[in-house]
Structures are given as C-alpha cells and as structure tokens.
C-alpha cells in the first residue's frame, strides 16, 4: 500500500485497533481480592468490681487501604455485644455481675472477616464488692432535737480501693478513705432507709452493696420521772442521795435535772452545788444526772430539819422533756 494515501491508512489502523479491543486482547485482568483488615485491641482494665466499667480501644488497624472494613463486633463475654463502625476506635461496657468474661472482636470486611487480636489480656475478671460492713442498729428515733446517730463499721476493705462511698438513702452520702473504721450519720427524716456501700478506685464506682435497712421512728412522747422515797424519809441523812427512776416509750430517757431548797422555820436556804446557803430557794444550782437502766441519782449536802423541797424533770434522747414536778418532805431529824 503506497504511503501516499495517509487517509486510507489511518482508517485501516483505526479499524484494526477496534477489532483488537473488541476481542478483549488488551482488556485488564480481573483484580484479585485483598486480605481482610486486621485490628489490634486493648482493655484498660481486666480486674474490676461488679458495676465498674471496662473500655476496649483499637490500638492499630492494618490492611484497610481499600476502605472495605464495614464494622467491628465486640463480644463482652457476658451475653452482650457492641457494634462499632469502621471509624470508631473505642467503647465502654459495664459488668453487672461477678465472673470471668472472655472478650473478643470480629472485624466485618468485604474482603473477608477477621478476628481481632489483643495487646495484653482479653479476659475480664469481675469480683464481688468485698469487705465487711455492719450497722450499729436497725432502728433509731427522731424527735424535736433531731435523729439519734447510726454508724456503719468498715473492715476488710480491699487494698486497691481508694475511697468508700456510703449511701444513706436520705439524699446524702459519705465518701471516706479505705482505712476509715466507723462512719456516723443522722438521718434527715423518718422512714425506712436502705444503707449501701460502693467501692471506688481508678475503674470508678462499683455496684452498690446493701448493708441493711434502718427504720427511723418518730418520737414525740415525753418521758416520765419519779423520786424514790426512802424508808426513813423524815431523816435528813436519808436524802444525802436523791434517787429515782425515769422511763420513756421511745428513744429512752437520757437525763434528769434536779434543784433542791430548804425552808427552816421562816428562813429559806438554797443548795449551791456544794453546801447549803441562806437565801432564796430560786438560787439553787441545777444538778444533772444521767439515766442508766431507768435509774438515776444525785448527791447533795445533808439537809437540816425543816422542809426539803425538790424540783425535778427529765429529758429523753431526742429532746422530749417531762413536765416539771416538785416534792416536799418534812424532816424531823
């Protein structure tokens, strides 16, 4: 074919090239599938208490240059799982119950699925909330002056615990160090209060452990008080120690208050705490006595002949007080 016919030559070349392409001689070979993406993971804690959280973190991802990774399925080993997208690198999980749980990760990739690897342990051990915690009482009283205190004793708190939180179920709580031995509390209102304990460390707060329930009862009943009359009540020596009883149907009698005076003929005397002094009986110093086992006693200087006048009242442990009473005794010896 003469080279002087360039137009005809170009037409023939184009037709030949088209035939080659249509025959597939220059077609690209099919692309082989890549290996699935690989992921490495790490747990921030492998030993926790029930109720505490564990975080899994992806520390590396390889083989996902084609962006064909769809997601990551974390099996926490306790019957629950979490799905993470391809771009998510961490997830937190709370373990509710003690036990040993194997954590695993499945990578879902269009090139095929893969199992994640762990840098470090992949099994989480969940311990029960440890230690010994006891209430001082299961019943207490609330009255005009407030509530009688209740305490929780702590023993055997684990060494890896930094703080212990006590919940009083009245809107308040106490946060104490692990070496604390006793924590006292006055409840803000009456009713049944469930007292709980939670342990705190670097993994956070544990689940609450129930210590017990405290029943706070209302007490607005006044105590009663009586003076015990000695067998030889007309003798001054019989009254060197004034004795009596006090009772209370609620919180219990706590204290009695006594004032004593004398009238000898037409002259008044008061007791100043040490001796009898001439003067108005209204100046008599108040003497206090603690009620123990329902009984109380107050010592005074031996009164002389005449009339011994005793004023007395009682108060209970939550601020209820009896009505003031008085007793007059004629002393002849």
TrEMBL record:
Domain PKD as annotated: residue spans: 75-129
GO biological process: carbohydrate metabolic process
UniProt keyword terms in alphabetical order: Signal
UniProt xrefs under CDD domains: PKD
Signal peptide positions (record): 1-32
Official protein name in the record: PKD repeat protein
Species: Actinoplanes teichomyceticus
């Amino acid at each position: 074919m003469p080279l002087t016919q360039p137009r005809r030559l170009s037409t023939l070349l184009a037709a030949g090239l088209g035939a080659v392409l249509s025959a597939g001689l220059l077609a690209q070979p099919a692309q082989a599938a890549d290996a699935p993406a690989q992921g490495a993971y790490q747990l921030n804690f492998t030993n926790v208490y029930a109720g505490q959280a564990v975080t899994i973190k992806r520390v590396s991802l390889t083989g996902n240059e084609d962006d064909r990774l769809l997601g990551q399925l974390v099996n926490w080993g306790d019957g629950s799982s979490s799905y993470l997208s391809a771009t998510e690198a961490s997830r937190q999980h709370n373990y509710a119950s003690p036990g040993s749980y194997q954590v695993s990760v499945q990578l879902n990739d269009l090139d095929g699925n893969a199992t994640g690897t762990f840098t470090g342990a992949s099994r989480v051990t969940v311990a029960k909330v440890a230690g010994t915690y006891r209430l001082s009482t299961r019943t207490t009283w609330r009255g005009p002056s407030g509530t009688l205190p209740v305490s929780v004793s702590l023993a055997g708190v684990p060494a890896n615990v930094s703080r212990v939180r006590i919940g009083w179920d009245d809107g308040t709580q106490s946060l104490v160090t692990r070496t604390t031995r006793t924590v006292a509390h006055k409840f803000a209102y009456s009713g049944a209060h469930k007292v709980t304990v939670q342990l705190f460390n670097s993994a956070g707060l544990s689940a609450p452990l129930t210590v017990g329930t405290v029943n706070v009862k209302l007490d607005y009943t006044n105590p009663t008080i009586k003076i015990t009359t000695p067998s030889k009540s007309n003798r001054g020596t019989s009254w060197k120690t004034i004795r009596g009883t006090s009772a209370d149907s609620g919180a219990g009698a706590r204290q009695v208050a006594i004032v004593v005076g004398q009238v000898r003929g037409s002259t008044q005397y008061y007791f100043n705490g040490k001796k009898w002094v001439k003067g108005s009986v209204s100046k008599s110093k108040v003497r206090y006595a603690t009620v123990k086992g329902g009984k109380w006693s107050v010592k005074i200087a031996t009164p002389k002949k005449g009339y011994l006048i005793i004023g007395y009242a009682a108060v209970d442990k939550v601020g209820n007080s009896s009505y003031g009473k008085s007793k007059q005794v004629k002393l002849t010896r």
